[in-house]
Amino acid sequence: MDFDLPADLTAYLAELDAFIEAEIAPLEAVDDNIRFFDHRREWARTDWEAGGLPRHEWEALLATVRRKADAAGYLRFALPREYGGRDGSNLWMAVIREHLAAKGLGLHNDLQNEHSIVANNPFVLMFRDFGTAAQQAEFIPGMLAETHRLAFGLTEPEHGSDATHMETVAVPETRGSLPGYRIDGEKMWTTGMHMASHCLTFARTSGEPGDAAGITAFLVPAKAPGVTIEEYLWTFNMPTDHPRVSFRDVFVPDSAILGKLGHGLALAQHFVHENRIRQAASSLGAATYCIEEAVRYARRRKPFGEELAKNQGIQFPLVELATQAEMLRLLIRKTAWQMDQMPKPEVERRLSDKVSMCNYWANRLVCEAADRAMQVHGGLGYSRHKPFEHIYRHHRRYRITEGAEEIQMRKVAAHLFGYMGPRRQELEKSLSAGSDERREG
């Protein structure tokens, strides 16, 4: 077994580093752009008088970086070559995301905004796999050019992780001889709605509450009559672009359906494993950054004339975190590599528990690492002059979003105890054999 990264991958990381140094770092240094990353970052990013939304200047700066990264050929790395990408694998994306996050805060990779010089772009593949020819022709180039932006309307006020008890409904209706659907309901945490051209809205079209089937995905124009942003939900880490949105008597034509009627949840699950493994890698990178910063500070700081790092009370907690990071890195890379060896349905059947392990543990680890870095740095670590509070406040969300850690632990348990996954038949057979042996005894 060879655990070394491929030579072309390490060369690509060096290429990204050179691009950051030549193109991105200078952009941080001009026009006081550093205000978005130093102790002023929350104020600089947040328009407090506009519902806590991101300031226009902040989002414009991120857009400038994306254009630079796209022109240099990095932004679309994960996409197929037909869309200007490089067919980036899950392993490569995991390593790249960890590498960029381990650099700390910066324009190269701002996790609070899901921004990176190597983008994720799951919606593009969603349209490739589920869209009609007309939808693909409009939305794929539109999303790549950023003329089309999609918000994701799945979660509801009364139903968080359980989408099957969805109360938003879509009823067939014809208006002006145009057949379509009337949508009524409410969505929560509809991220990016303030800039969206459309909201991918999930609504029940048939079936009963609790049924996975009968839910359909609709492409609803963000400015359609009856679509209302009711409030922006202020969060632990500001700015916020996570509103509660209502849909009242909203009409869309049949052509607004994305995917098959009644099978919308397949879209919601389409990219979940890729998203989770990449997000786990980013959390690992941020955790590594916190650990390394704490180590360096402990070596520099000399209270009572000796390095802080000589105290076992400082050493041992960081040793434990560093050990967890090393083990997690191996599991993430192994899982990402295995994902690249099989089609999506097989990933769901054979590897979803490993993806969940990576994700929930990485999100927990980065919070612990940020907290420990604060402790090692003392009062300075608690201040906003260090990035640890920002890292903690951002990554704390991922223990809830992208599948709450309890949901992910349930998935792991289902595989571990053989209620689903490849161990199911094996365990049932062994348990049955054990019962037979006891009866015979």
The assigned structural class equals alpha+beta
CATH class of one domain: Mainly Alpha
Strand count, sense and barrel status of the largest sheet are: 4 strands, mixed
Major beta sheet, strand line-up: 5-8-9-12
Please state the CA-atom Rg, rounded to the nearest Å. 24 Å
Helix content: 40-55%
Descriptive tags:
441 residues; Butyryl-CoA Dehydrogenase, subunit A, domain 2; Butyryl-CoA Dehydrogenase, subunit A, domain 3; four-stranded mixed β-sheet; 15 helices; 12 strands
Structure write-up:
- The protein is an alpha+beta fold and 441 residues long.
- Among the domains are: 150-268, Butyryl-CoA Dehydrogenase, subunit A, domain 2 (Beta Barrel), CATH 2.40.110.10; 271-425, Butyryl-CoA Dehydrogenase, subunit A, domain 3 (Up-down Bundle), CATH 1.20.140.
- 49% of the residues lie in helices and 14% in strands.
- The chain is built from 15 helices and 12 strands.
- The strands form 4 sheets. It has a 4-stranded mixed β-sheet with strand order 5-8-9-12. The protein has a 4-stranded antiparallel β-sheet with strand order 6-7-11-10, with no helix packed on it.
- Strand 1 and strand 2 (53-54) form a beta hairpin.
- The two termini are 45 Å apart.
- The model has no long low-confidence stretch (mean pLDDT 94).
